[in-house]
Every structure is written in C-alpha cells, then in structure tokens.
Amino acid sequence: MESLQELRAEIDQLDRELLQLIEKRLSLVKKVGELKHKKGLPIYVPDREADMLLARRKEAENIGVSAELIEDVLRRLMRESYASENQYGFKTVNPAIKKIVIVGGKGKLGGLFASYLSASGYPVSILDKADWLNAGKILAGANVVIVSVPICDTQEVIESLRPYLTENMLLTDLTSVKCLPLKKMLEVHSGAVVGLHPMFGPDIESMAKQIVVRCDGRYLERYQWFLDQIQIWGAKIYCVDAIEHDQNMTYVQALRHFSTFASGLHLSKQPVQLSKLLALSSPIYRLELAMIGRLFAQDGGLYADIIMDKPENLTVIKSMQQSYEESLKFIENGDKQGFIDCFNQVKQWFGNYSQQFLKESHQLLKQANDYRRS
C-alpha cells in the first residue's frame, strides 16, 4: 500500500505539471487569437489542424504512446482554444457598415449572431416584438437587416419590413426553411438578398467547424463581405439551391426530429423507469437516450414548426410509418432470413459510409463512457 500511495503521489505531481503545460499552451493560444484578430484571419484553419495532428500522432507512436490518446487530448484542447479565441473579437471585414438590425435579436439564435457581429466591430440594434411601433426609427440608416424569428412568423415579419427597406440594404434571414422566406424577401426588397441557415443551435461554444448554408438571392457581390465575416468566425459556408435545401431538410431535420419525438413519446408510455434504463444501458443505448432527452430539454414550439413547416414533411414521415410496418412483418412472421436480406440491402446503400460512421460513433461512445458516473 505504501508503494501504491507513492505511485499515486507521482501521478498527482505529473497531473499538476500537465496543468501548468496546458495553462502555458492556452496562454500561447491567447496570443494567436490576438494576432488573428489583428490580421483578420479565420479561427479555424483545416490544413493547419490536420498537419499538426498528423505530426503529433507520428511523434506519439515513436515514443510508444497511443496516437489515438494524443489526438483525443489535442482535439479537446483545440476545442477549448477555438472557444477562447472568441473573446478577442474579430476583424471588421466591412468597416462601411454602420448599422445592423436583427429582427428577433432577443431570441437565442438572433442573440448569438448579435454577439458575433458586435465582437466584429459592427453596431447592432434589435427589433423585437414589442418594438414595432418604433420600427421606422430602429431600421433607419440600417445597412443590414437580419430576420431571426420562428418559422411560422417569418414570411409575415418579412412582409412587415417592406415599408422600411431601402435599395442599399442587405436583407437576410436565419430560418431553417429557405424557399418561401427567400421568395418573400425577393418580393418585398429590390436590393441585395441572401437566405442563410445556420446548421447549429444557439448553445455552441464556437463557430469553428460549424456549417452555415447559403441560398443566393440577388447581388452576391453586395453580401460577399458578410459571408467572409462568417468564415472569419470559423464557420464553413455551404452554397445550395433553396429548393434542394428544403428537400434535404425534410430528412436532415423534420424526419429525424419526428423520429426522436416518437421514440420519446413511446418510452414515456412504457412501464419502465428512466433511471433503471440508464443503469442497465450499454454506452450506445445511453447515447441514444441522451439524444432523445436532448430534444425534450428544448422548445417544443421550435420542433413543431420544423416538423410541420411544409406538406412534404408529412409525406416522408408517413413513408417512415410504412417502413416500420414492413420491418415489423419480419418479426411477426419470424422471417429471420428476410430480415437479414433487408439488412444487407440497407448496408449496401450505406456503402463505405457505414465504416466511416462506425469510426465516428466509436469516438462518441468513448467520450460518453468517460463521463458515466452510474
């Protein structure tokens, strides 16, 4: 026992030395953030990250340390670094912009963009529900108007902006559907228009590696600076046609959210206790429960809007019901071979992505298991 205590004491000392090294690394990151702010460089540089990870993996292997361990540690440190770099602000890409108005800026997503724009040196004003009597005053002199309101209110709000828009303004929105909002913006505004869809929630620590979808409207050259500004924050811009965007969102958002909702609803009606399920869960099932629980920790109105925003969503959701019924028949009929044949057909459809997803999920499972306490 004395030997064990001595070894533990040495480990504790090494841990304290690691803390000092981490503090030193974060201090260097602070200087990097300050330089990036001055030079207008993006927070996230994919090539630099990839090269650094590859070099450290090779060095780890050369001294007999797990390359996976080193990559895990470094990725966690880099995530912290990206988040900490936000506090130093960002270069102002377009100093000519004197006023940006966010309609719905008191909401979570609107507030997130307000904070990033302010950190980039732009004067930001908020036009919220209670402010419409003063809309003319708030919108006067604005160079950019960003609409960030619930899906069900978006078109009405855009229409309400019509009397206040001038040709030199940029009009954009942050809605998760794009066809109808983009069409309405082009209808009410003769100036620059672009539809944006941030593919993340307002609880992110950093824009690094996040995706912002862009659906072009009119006068790209007038809003290219705004896209450049978002990229400096660390996000990637993905350009897609509005129709194609909405078609894909039926599967990426509506179908997925409905499946999660239905799973949670079904579980809530079963004679089981969630605490017992967690205690008996494998890491993968615990992660699946976490994803279901995550949905119900948020706003039901938001998910209702996403799931019900267009008729196509209902059609696809009904097709999933048919797939459930088809799958259930294998069980009802005891058709094991039929199940396996169907399984292999789906496996073939996924192709090489199956192995990619297996690798990605393996990393998530390790992290989920690390935080398990019961």
Automatic annotation (TrEMBL):
- The UniProt record lists the keyword NAD: yes
The Prephenate/arogenate dehydrogenase domain covers which part of the protein? 98-361
Known Pfam families for this protein? CM_2, PDH_C, PDH_N
Q: Gene3D superfamilies recorded for this chain? A: 6-phosphogluconate dehydrogenase C-terminal like domain, Chorismate mutase, NAD(P)-binding Rossmann-like Domain
Keywords tagged on the record: Amino-acid biosynthesis, Aromatic amino acid biosynthesis, Coiled coil, Cytoplasm, Isomerase, NAD, Oxidoreductase, Tyrosine biosynthesis
Q: Would you tell me the protein name for this molecule?
A: T-protein
UniProt organism field: Seminibacterium arietis
InterPro entries annotated for this entry? 6-PGluconate_DH-like_C_sf, Chor_mut/prephenate_DH_T, Chorismate_II_sf, CM_dom_sf, CM_II_prokaryot, CM_T, NAD(P)-bd_dom_sf, PDH_C
Write out the coiled-coil annotation as residue ranges.
4-31
Q: In which pathway does it act?
A: Amino-acid biosynthesis; L-tyrosine biosynthesis; (4-hydroxyphenyl)pyruvate from prephenate (NAD(+) route): step 1/1; Metabolic intermediate biosynthesis; prephenate biosynthesis; prephenate from chorismate: step 1/1
Q: Where in the cell is it found?
A: Cytoplasm
Query: Which Gene Ontology molecular-function terms are recorded?
Result: chorismate mutase activity; prephenate dehydrogenase (NAD+) activity
Domain called Chorismate mutase: residue spans:
1-89
